[in-house]
Amino acid sequence: MTAIDHATTSHAPHVPVHKTKQTDWLGLGITGVLGLVVVVPLIVVAIWAFAEVWRYPSLLPQKFGLRFWNDTLSRPDVWGAMFLSIRLSLTVTMLSALICLPAAYAFARLDFPGRNVLFLSFLASHAFPKFGLLVAIAGIFLNLGLISTFWGVVLIQLVGTLMMMIWIPVAAFQNVDRAMEDAARDAGAGPLRVFWSVSLPQAAPTIFAAVLLSFVGTFYETEGAWLIGAPEIRTMPVLMITFINNQIVVQYGAVLSVLLWVPSFFALMFTRRLVGSASFAKGFGV
Amino acid sequence: MTDMASPDSNVRKDGFAKRHGRGLTGLLLVAAPVILLGWLIIYPIFNAVARTLFVNSDAGASFSLDTYQRFFTDSYSLANLWLTLWVTVVCAALLMAICLPLALYLRFAKSRIAAVVQGLALFPMFVPSVILAYALIRTIGPNGGVDLVLNAIGLPKINSPYLTPWGPVIGLVWDNIPLTTLMLVAGLGGVSDNAVEAARDAGARHVALLRHIILPQIGNAMLVVLSFTVLSIFSAFTLPYVLGPASPEMMGPFMQRTFSQVQDTRMAVTQAVITFVICAGFGAFYVRSIAKNREARQ
Fold first, then answer.
1. Membrane-crossing residues (chain B) (predicted)?
2. Which numeric CATH code is attached to B74-297?
3. Tens of pLDDT along A247-267?
4. What residues of chain A lie within 8 A of the CB of B27, using their CB?
5. What's the complex ipTM?
6. What contacts B62, CB < 8 A, 6 or more positions away?
7. Which residue among A39, A105, A155 places its CB closest to the CB of B29?
8. Each residue's pLDDT tens digit, B158-171
9. Which residues pair with B60 in a beta bridge?
10. Contact criterion met (CB < 8 Å) for A136 and B269
11. Domains in chain A, please, with CATH?
């Protein structure tokens, strides 16, 4: 975490500050405009979720209530999609952690032939337009009979998590305090013991953030699930698109949005520090 | 973010045999994701090119450009391509216009409000595109939130961008604000406060400061941002599909429809290869930029 903390604080002013006493009108203005653009659409959705009757010219719903929560939550397709999405995201995140974390450790701490090229190729995998790549993969999956299957979607979503689950943990493992590891080794601890008791606990918070981001990212992943999963595999975002397109009842979409919002709220809470740091942007080659 | 070349004292201390063993361990540890990368990213790209250039017939495989010819002579396909290019250019311009001032503010602001601005600018990153699409329909769609407010204060309704090319533009800009701002702020990290203060003391105005001190420093970051925007808009599916017009459609929905509904896999893959080719220059620049960055750290 140290590099990340450094990165967030490194912009702290070194120059004599002569503006702090003044009101930051520019900042307030930007906050106002951004708040309007960013937050208002989501507030409108939240109001819709609790509206029972909302006809056009009225500024607020004529009748508030929870009727559509009951209606939405009593639909079997909603529960089916919810459980499927959770099952998919858990499977993908666990598989991803299982294969990526050891690889991240190796990239960060071991020396082996081709290390730089292989690591770069993970970062470079973002240099292709993702949807075109999905179509190319779908063409291959079609021959393998993986279209419209659970494991087909798992594979496609697993690829989507690779980059994040490698480069964030690599940074975490590189920032582990070497002196502490050496001290543990001098005290007679074996390599596994050092890894388990010294290295891992230090890297854990960042790794946890990466795992959480992968889980949430997989939960919301729409393109792969739509292209590879259709028509059998209907995840939550896919169901949501069907609701939007068919426009059966406006509130269904609103209730689902508010429900779907919960996981991303947790992601926001736990990973803001990581995402807000300059080192995060560095991963994109700035 | 990472410096792979940091001399690893542990590796150095170890003898030759052990180092050899470590090399093998390292390769084994990275094997699974590397295989996945090879099978599901690198192989599909070559497979896509080969599949569209060679036709299998009884006489064996033969070279053919027929699907490409069909794409470039079909006015509907071309209209879709032009629409995607248009959306890309408009989005890139809007993102620069919005995010550069935002990044400049975040880089140089010293008040506590800057933290709030940063939080708001990063916020869209945590809103999945499906929810965003729905929220935008409810807000700027016909009889949406904006119309309600305009009507209440006695103004005419807006010309709703929903189901026009401006729908995806608004959605994609909204969606891309956080990463664009982050990258530009990171780029601005290279501009030192001292240089700015010195120029200011020498009497440089805001515009001159921006043109001569700041812009030359963040040229690379701006190009990376541009590459990223092009790549992400050519890959966009959800927002164009939900918010965009049905005809012409953007490349994402077009490929999806060709694959799933028309069930013309070869044509869909041809469209994919065309997006690869258009994005290749930007992708190459992006990779070069990462590589250069990492070299600089070594």
1. 21-46, 81-106, 113-137, 169-191, 221-243, 268-287
2. 1.10.3720.10
3. 667 888 899 888 888 767 777
4. 106, 112-114
5. 0.87
6. B54, B55
7. A105
8. 888 998 999 999 99
9. B57
10. yes
11. 2-15+68-282 (1.10.3720.10)
